[in-house]
Amino acid sequence: MIAIVGGGPAGCLMALMLARRGHQVEVFERSPDPREVPPESGRSINLALAARGLRALREAGMEQRLADLLVKMPGRMIHEPGASDRFVPYGQREHEVIYSISRAALTARLIEAARELPNVRLHFNQRCTGYSGHGRIHLVDAADGREYEVQAPRVIGADGGGSVLRQALASRLGFTVREDRLEHDYKELVIPTLHGRPQLAMHALHIWPRGGFMLIALPNSDGSFTATLFLAREGSPGFGQLTSATQVREFFASEFPQALELIPDLTAQFAAHRQGFLGTVHCPVWHEGEQLLLIGDAAHAIVPFHGQGMNCAFEDCGVLDTLLLADPHTAFSRFQIERHADCEAIAAMALENYEEMRDTVLDPRFQRQKALSLELERRHPARFIPRYSMVMFHDEIPYAVAQERGRLQQQILDALTATPDDVDWALADRLVGELPPLPQP
Fold first, then answer.
1. Do 49 and 304 form a contact (C-beta atoms < 8 A)?
2. In principle, which of 86, 89, 146, 303 could form an S-S bond with 141, CB 3.0–4.6 Å?
């Protein structure tokens, strides 16, 4: 028997993969069954699904079961102050798109699939309070307050960024977890449909970049959008200044007048939805022998600005499934060896992408380099792929490889755009030709 603590998307997907291999799986989730209660307002309503996540879902037999929930986004719609809206494709091939999906709907579908398997049991309203080694999990039943213990030969911790199992592991093994909280927080808002129709283009992730902060909006399958304001906690502007309806309305009228028109109950939503915090978890140890292992956010929570939190967690599930099949006696220790560098790489790239989304997209030189990188990819598809594309669309390229290759390619782009002159294509071809070939699918 394998016990999974955490019944969110990663925990449920891991349960499906393990059950399909014949394992008996017990899943313990602290929240109620999400199919029976509405999602919490303002909390992670949308997720962005890309190649790595899709591959894991495909391996679990779930890709087609989720098809009707996916909203295709082939690019960004940039809303600049005083300028016309500008659509920027993510890639240049038909398959280079990302998908918006409701977290609640995704989790519900995964739970439905898990319930169909006789060797999976899901236990909701069961809060994990600790771990005392040798597969012993301590839990509390939310219904009656009963405290009890479950012992399993293997325990997988998928209990999110605030992982109790991570805290227990750090205490037991005596290591320190570094949690770097971002100075910016977030608040989610809903842009409703108007007379049953979307108010924004459905084929894009919308961004209102404002330098030190931004607003984004992702489409939902019903035509509404989930908007998220990313803003400093303190300072000017900052959430600390937005404590009254008047202040909220004046801020949006000044910075995001379009959004103010799109959200008729803006101030009510702003007051009702909680302010969330963002951060990166750097955990040096993910396992205790072959009895306990952390995956997903429990091991390596990242900020959401590259749309890779869920994709990385789903990729974790696929990697662990493969390792367990190859050699179950060493899978937990090998998992950390195989994944740690990649997860540190995507954590760094996610932070860098925040600066790009809120600020750099407005820089003319960035726009020039973006166009140049696409042309270099057309000329040298085996050697030059934009870093964003490597992360989002090329699951055969590990995150750490994408990070290092992106660094080398940026040096080439900087050299080719050092002056406003036309690109020296002979130099460009030579520099790219000196790069080694990239992994191929």
1. no
2. 146
